[in-house]
Amino acid sequence: MKLSFLTILLFTGILHQGLAQKMIKGTVTDPTDTPLPGASVLIQGTTTGTLTDFDGIFEIKAKEGAIIEISYVGFETANFAVTKEDEYTIQLNEEIDQLDQVIVVGYGTQRKAILTSSVSSVDGDDLAAEPVLNPLQALQGNAAGVQITSSDAPGQAPNVIIRGLGTIQGGREPLYVVDGILTNNINNINSSDIERIDVLKDAASLAIYGNRGANGVIMVTTKKGRSGKMKINFDSFTGFRDIVTRVEMADASSFVTFSNEARRRDLRRDGDPNNDNDTTGFLLANQQYNTNWLDEIIRQGLITNHNLSLSGGTDNIRSFFSMGFNKEEGILLGNDFDRLTLRSNTDYRISDSFTFSNNVSVQLANATPKSFNAFTNAYKQAPIIPVRDENGNFGTSKGLNNVSNPVKDLFFQDEDQKFFKIQGTFKLDYQILESLTATSRFSIENEQARFYQFVDILGLFLADDPTLTELDFFREDEDRPQTILRVEQSNIYRWFWDNYITFEKRFAEIHGIKATLGITAEEGKREFLVGTRVNVPSDRNLRFNLDTGDADDRQTSGGSFNDGLGKLFSYIARINYDYKDKYLLNGSYRRDGSSNFTKGKRFGDFFALSAGWVVSEESFMENSIFDVLKFRASYGELGNQNVPQNILNVTTGDGGFYPFGPDGELQQGITITGTIDEELTWETTNEIDFGVEYSVFNRRLTGEMDYYKRTNTNAILQIQLPDVFGFDPFNSHVGEVVNEGFEAVINWSDAIGELRYTLSSNFTYNQNELTKVTNPFFNEQDGGSIDNGQFTKRVTVGRPLGSFFLYDVIGIDDRGELVYDDVNNNGIVDEGDRKYFGSYIPKIVIGSSLSVDYKNFDFSIETLANLGNEVYNGKKAQRFGNENIEQQVFNRRWTSGRPSNTDPIASNDVPLSSTYFLESGDFFRINNITLGYTIPEDASGPFSKIRVYGTARNPIIFQKFSGFTPELVGDPLGTAGIELNAYPSLRSFYVGLNVSF
């Protein structure tokens, strides 16, 4: 009886469920009531779904209360609940981010549809979709015209160049604007906190930033609170990292053979062809040690990252709060970094006319730096040297080569760095009239840093030569300190005050005007203080305390200066006009006054004019294939005030006295070795831009193309007067640098049943050249030193900035020696034989991505290609004698029994800077692969979303360069494009979790 009753209950329940489901019918249309065929219809929390037919009609079985989700490419997703009705009509709105996206520009916003400037935008959700510690890493390869060179060192930000390199003496980094704060970097911002990033690239968008806009501007908008119940998000990922490309070094046996051959070659060169009985300087085979130095200095890097955010509010108060923590254990032993970030964004609606908002962010970070020179020393150190000998002492190569033990160097490098940064923006908006709003915004930024460096002088002395004792240490100087502690405290503060009014109105429904007029002011200053103590105890708890040890007043210093910013006062104006969203005009103007320059040179005027024509709005385009077709053009003038200032050098003689007159009597005086160009001011850049934007196939295919020419008309370069003047080189406005290029972006989005996908690609071509110099005393600066007396670069007219200037290797002679092109035909190798070769600046950068969503799965892959540049293998070229060599150099070396036409004979000579060490910088890399799964809502319990994912970042690279990485950051006349003391590229593997409730 009991079993029968349960059976009846079960049957009744099944019958009830079956009866509760019913067939419903619906029609899906766009805002013009045009049916949408192929729209996806899905019952939320299930895998049950269907597609609309050619007339936009669907039928599906569902029970009352079920939520039906309708989605279609190019339109916003819509949901409705099943009621007692059997038929439904659903109208989908076009996606705002594809049709009428709002772009953040300087001191306001503008609709993408009527924008007449070149701006690349990346949505915050796309940035947060992959695990990165700096949002610029996610931007790499996703914005045309933006070259981002990554550094995988813990805590270090990528290097960013927008539309080429316009200066070699001035600053090259773009300006960052975070919620109105003008700053130098965004290292303190979590990717999860970003709503969107807009990259302003052309003069039309940049002129509003005057003499700070020449290098581009990256606008960062952080997330805001929204009305409604509290929403909580938690993101977390963890993973490990290792080197992508390892360089195989010669083992002990190969090293001994190579070194002995080099010794024989040196003896023959010195005129001793008979050296068979001379074993001086030769190494014995069967060495006791065979050290792999790279393995000894690295470890598996570990990363953890956690972010928690809360968002919610009412119609009058909306808040967003987030907290993030990340920790990096770098691959280099002891190289660690951790960061805690806090953010609070709150908006208040005081009345119908007044609104107030404040954004405050805090960063606390700690770093234990280690010198990247360890990678070069690990490359060069002989494998026959042990890390530690049988007595536990650090191995030393004294008497063999001048390479330090990199493990010892890392052990004795004892530094701590602590950072505190706070940013705050306080903004008041008053709506004077319906079309007129006044804005006052005050922002502050304060950065504090403390650097601790402890040097164990005695320990280093004993480690460098285990045969020495403490008595030997004090015998040289009995007052010699055993330890030194150096502590530096730095404080940088800046404030910004913007006041402007915005007028926005549409007349007769066809004339649209938006105008901004205002004034801005800012000031920045840096203060620092350095103190040292000697004979500080080695105990870890005491060594970073200035209260211990003995005074060392000679090393104490401090000061205050303007940090390259000083005071800036500006007037701004901008007006946008459109006629029927069809004919577009834009003008912007800024007058800047900067305290960085001399009187008469402090004020400058910067402007831009742009126009656009939305051809697709014309009547004759009604039946064309284009959903959107827009042409735009712009011209403007920008400035770069981040330039070096001339300093007059005054030198006094011994006691300030010099021999003077016929009798050579001592007279008091000074020597002036420098001069100042009083005309020195900001660098000025003029730019033209022609662009086209298009959308076809119901906005499935969208894209943009831009041609630009950017000219720095007064680039600062060095002048060298004749020796008779007795002046050192000094800076002056004497150069013209041109960057000319083409950009293209193309996106395709579509759906096949429940599978949605998006293909995106962007292409950048840029040609950089110093086109002319206006002073005959222009100093062709040399650079690219590789710390062995050799230089690799020179600045000259007709070449890209940072061009390599090298001897050209044209072959190998019958003795195995490199043969250089005798350019000046004088029969010897001298400076006149150097030639110009490529630059480290790439000509072509291509970024591509594919994202796929199928049911609860998501997949994405991103790639990056870098073409048309050269890199120099500096660590391979930095030889003095008996350094290790790469295994392939050993395998391919010239010998009398096996002549080679690629690699020379073994040698201990300091090599000339030549094309032998110059290699292609081309590479193709998979930037990111991510596979995620979102748990169905009916199985996620109290959570609205649970997503788990796995990511491989930079897992594979195809490169021509034989070194660790072809991405080499640095100054144009420094280490940019030279692998020397460089951090290798890393691949990372993560697992992550996204939770919302």
From TrEMBL:
This is SusC/RagA family TonB-linked outer membrane protein. Keywords: Cell outer membrane, Membrane, Transmembrane, Transmembrane beta strand, Transport. The keyword Glycoprotein does not apply. It is found in: Cell outer membrane. It is a multi-pass membrane protein. It comes from the Bacteria. SUPFAM superfamilies: Carboxypeptidase regulatory domain-like, Porins. Residues 115-217 form the TonB-dependent receptor plug domain. Transmembrane segments: none annotated. Belongs to the TonB-dependent receptor family.
